[in-house]
Amino acid sequence: MIKLEMEEFIEEIKAEMYGYEEIEESQINEWESKFRAFIMQENKKKTKNNRIKFGPNSIIIELKDETDIFKIADKYLVAVVNNEVDKYWVDWQL
Fold this sequence. Notes:
This protein is an alpha+beta fold. The chain has helices at about 5-20, 25-45, 65-80, 85-90, and strands at about 1-5, 50-55, 60-65.
């Protein structure tokens, strides 16, 4: 199990996405904005995602291992290539 603060998690995902020439910087920034919105929605839910820990000064994301980072970036790549970014966010889960 890997635990990352939310900012570190976002930077890891973005770094992976920058490795794909098919994903433009504006799309990476859009992913970040939508992910932040997802986190805020999760914080409002009564039943919390057990992989997201909300502390008083930080948000911790728990990953099974580093392959979770690759899976998230790879799924986004497929969504970008297939012009299905909106579908990517439907029922998005960590």
